[in-house]
Write a structure and sequence with these properties.
about 45% helix; five-stranded antiparallel β-sheet; single chain; 2 domains; alpha+beta; about 15% strand; about 130 residues
Length: about 130
C-alpha cells in the first residue's frame, strides 16, 4: 500500500514534513471546523482535513465533508462529540431531578458540574472506543 493510498482511506493520517515539501492545495480553505489537536491552522479541501503545525502537516480524509453535511460528519466522523453532548444533557437532567428540592443556585452549580463531567466522560470514552476500533 502506498502513502497516498493511506491518506485516502478514512481514519488514516499521514504526516508531511515541511522540510520535505511546503505544500498547500490551491483550493483548500482555512477552516475552524474540526479539532485542531494543537495545530495553529487547519484547512479543508473536499473530504481532506489538513492540520498545519510548525514543522509538519497532518492530513487525513473524513467520510463526510462537515461544510456540506455537518450532522452527517458528526455521525460518521465525530460521534464522540454527539455522545459527549448527549451525556452532558442527560447528566444535567439527572442532577436537576435529584436536586430539585434544593436552592436554585445549588441546583444550577451541581447541574453545571455534572453536565461538564458527564459530557467529558462520554466524549473521552467514545473517543477511546473509536480509536480502538479503527
Amino acid at each position: 500500500m502506498q502513502l497516498l493510498d493511506l491518506a485516502i482511506m478514512p481514519g488514516n493520517e499521514i504526516e508531511v514534513p515541511k522540510e520535505l515539501r511546503e505544500f498547500m492545495l490551491e483550493k483548500a480553505e482555512e477552516t475552524f471546523l474540526g479539532q485542531k489537536n494543537g495545530a495553529y491552522k487547519q484547512y479543508r479541501y473536499g473530504n481532506l482535513h489538513i492540520r498545519e503545525y510548525g514543522d509538519k502537516f497532518l492530513v487525513h480524509t473524513d467520510k463526510v465533508d462537515p461544510r456540506k453535511d455537518p450532522v452527517g460528519h458528526l455521525i460518521h466522523d465525530a460521534p464522540e462529540v454527539l455522545i459527549g453532548l448527549a451525556c452532558a444533557v442527560f447528566g444535567s437532567q439527572v442532577a436537576k431531578n435529584i436536586l430539585d428540592k434544593n436552592s436554585k443556585k445549588q441546583s444550577f452549580t451541581v447541574g453545571l458540574i455534572t453536565s461538564i463531567v458527564s459530557g467529558y466522560v462520554g466524549y473521552t470514552a467514545t473517543k477511546k472506543i473509536k480509536n480502538y476500533l479503527e
